[in-house]
Amino acid sequence: MTAATVAAPRHTVITRRGPIDALRDSLVLAGRNIVKIRKNPETLLDVTLQPILFLFMFVYLFGGAIAGDTHAYLQMLMPGLMVQNIAFASLGTGTALNTDITKGVFDRFRSMPIARSAPLVGAVLGDIVRYLVAMAVLVITAVILGFRVHTDPGSFLLVIALMVVFGLCLCWVSVFVGMLVKSPQAVPGVLVAFIMPLTFGSNVFAPTSSMPGWLQGWVKINPVTQLTDAARGLLNGGPWADHAAYAFLWALAIAVVFFPLAFRAYRRRVG
Amino acid sequence: MTNAIEAEGLVKRFGKTTALDGVDLAVPGGKILGMLGPNGAGKTTAVRILATLLRPDAGWARVAGYDVVKQSTQVRSLVGLTGQYASLDEDLSATENLVLLGRLLGLSKPQAKIRAAELLARFELTDAAKRSIKTFSGGMRRRADLAASLVGRPDVLYLDEPTTGLDPHSRNEVWDTVRTLVDDGVTVLLTTQYLDEADQLADLITVVDHGRIIATGRPDELKRHTGGQTLQVRPTLQVDMDATAAILADLTGTKPLRDDDTGLLTAPVADPMLLSAVVRRLDDAGITADELALRLPSLDEVFLSLTGRKSSSDTDAARVPERSNA
Q1: Is residue B271 over pLDDT 50?
Q2: Homologous superfamily (CATH) for B3-224
């Protein structure tokens, strides 16, 4: 028996989806996430309002005490805040995916002849836009407050690229958690326990040398510290390449561990 | 006739729960199969397997000849799914949702827009096309869901409880739509908890309980299978109730069931030929009736007689009658 014997099909039967189809499917689905951002800008509040508050709070509240001068502190803090911002932005991926699964949107996609990985990859690709918006809001606010790039536009763009790559690697942790927990609301709760030590246990807010020895041990190997140092070098002038390489390796390691875990959890969750 | 949907011995377990316990299905192309059963009977599990969203633990299923496990991509390109589980993106508008699905099905952007507009017009959603789904009423949402499942012009459509929670008006709208689909040659598998829904729409009804099929047949076959017919008479004048009841008692040999509130008399009838005798006797007595009908037992009655009183919690399989063949 073939399809032709049943009620004369009016369309082609798709037999398989190759890598190019998978990419196309993923891009279409990434487009969906971008439309959602445009329609619900309030979903960006966590990655826009929070860093702005942090910027004001730390620069004016603690800046004088930590660096002796709020402007000097702003120059030091801003690159680190970009890293923290990306780390927090990556939390959103898991929440959004969990929402799609619990609301049944994923089942609709999965009942269609699209690449199996597309809904997952599409969501992650769509998040690049979130990262860029979050970065732009932070940079513009900082510039208004007096932050200046002391190097060149190329270095600035390199910083943005590093941040996006870091976010894309880190988001697989969020995806993994998003596949494990029952409700979307639970995702940030679980992840904050992971993100807090990562972003605050770093040299983003205070110089490493001011910390006790045991903490310095962690702060020095923390990828957030390394990426912050790379961004400081690239924006304020100074060495950056080693830090960037170290941070990149870290990001890669996180992705290598969590991408397969997330993908396995995804397949288990959605059957 | 070729079957559009075929399954044999489908088993699915979730931990200790057996959701499906050996289900066989055969739906001829272009027909509507109504899968009827209470909550937790396994209807949704069956649909999810047939839509390639779940793998069966045992048994096989084919849609348009393609195996749902080994040829899932082919199956997905032929089926549409509407139900509790496959939903639309609430943040997007109706058009955006349908265009997205069209794009995923390989249409170009202009093609997808045309298709979306076509479907929205067909489901009378053109005015609401730009509104986000979360502003839709229950009935509109169900129509949008139906539209979404038709973007790819499916040969086989699964409707998982398409009218649950809808008001009677919206339910009728969905029913009308389902009927037009079959006119297009689409094969439909419809799950429902509503007996009248299956009776209204389905060519074939499969009654499911506890993951097993307990009866299959055409609606009238099922009804006949489980009991005789009922004669209903409603005299125009209340004063004729007694005389009418006497005539019915005389002809059917049993005292009719009398409802003075509705003015309805009901009596079981073994021989359908009795109807004309009743008409003659009423006429002779000068009694006019607003309602005079011979009806099959309702599917409610059928269902109860098939599954026992408390179907969803009942684990006693001994009372389950033999499966009849369609």
Answers
A1: yes
A2: P-loop containing nucleotide triphosphate hydrolases (3.40.50.300)
* A191 residue type, one letter: L
pLDDT score of B316 more than 60: no
CA dist B29 and B40 (Å) reads 27
Judging contacts by C-beta atoms under 8 Å, the chain B residues touching residue A29 are: 100, 104
Q: Give me the domain span that covers residue A24.
A: 18-269
Q: Residue ranges per domain, chain B?
A: 3-224, 229-295
Contact A6 B65 (CB under 8 A): yes
Sign of the Cα pseudo-torsion (A110, A115, A120, A124, in order): negative
- Residue A2 within any structural domain of the chain: no
Closest CA relative to residue A24, chosen from B88, B52, B105? B105
Angstroms from A35 CA to nearest CA on chain B: 8
CATH of segment(s) B229-295: 3.30.70.100
Tell me whether 0.90 is exceeded by the ipTM: no
DSSP structural state of residue A181: S
Residue ranges of chain A whose CB lies within 8 Å of a chain B CB: 1-3, 5-17, 25, 28-29, 31-32, 35-36, 39-40, 100, 103-105, 107-114, 270-271
Per the listing, tokens 């179907």 go with: B311
Strands B229-235 and B212-217: unpaired
Residue pair B160/B47 in contact (Cβ under 8 Å)? The answer is yes
CB atoms A7 and B96 under 8 Å: no
CB-CB contact of B102 with A36 (8 Å) = no
Looking at chain A, the number of H-run helices and the number of E-run strands are 12, 0
**How close are the terminal C-alpha atoms of chain A, in Å?**
28
Residue B204's Cβ-side half-sphere holds a number of Cα atoms within 13 Å equal to 23
Percent of chain A with pLDDT over 70: 95
DSSP state string for A24-86: HHHHHHHHHHHHHHHH-GGGGHHHHHHHHHHHHIIIIIIHHHHHSSHHHHHHHHHHHHHHHHH
Q: Are B292 and B265 in contact (CB under 8 A)?
A: no
Residue A7 lies in a domain: no
Question: Is residue B65 within 8 Å of residue A1, measured between CB atoms?
Answer: yes
Task: Give the pLDDT mean for A171-181.
Answer: 92
> What's A14's DSSP letter?
P
pLDDT of residue B320: 34
Residue type, B154: P
Separation CA B242–CA B238 (nearest Å): 9
pLDDT digits (tens, 9 = 90+) for A220-246: 989 999 999 999 999 998 899 999 999
Task: Look up residue A250 and give its amino acid.
Answer: W
Number of structural domains, chain A? 1
In a domain, A171, yes or no: yes
Do the Cβ atoms of A3 and B74 come within 8 Å?
yes
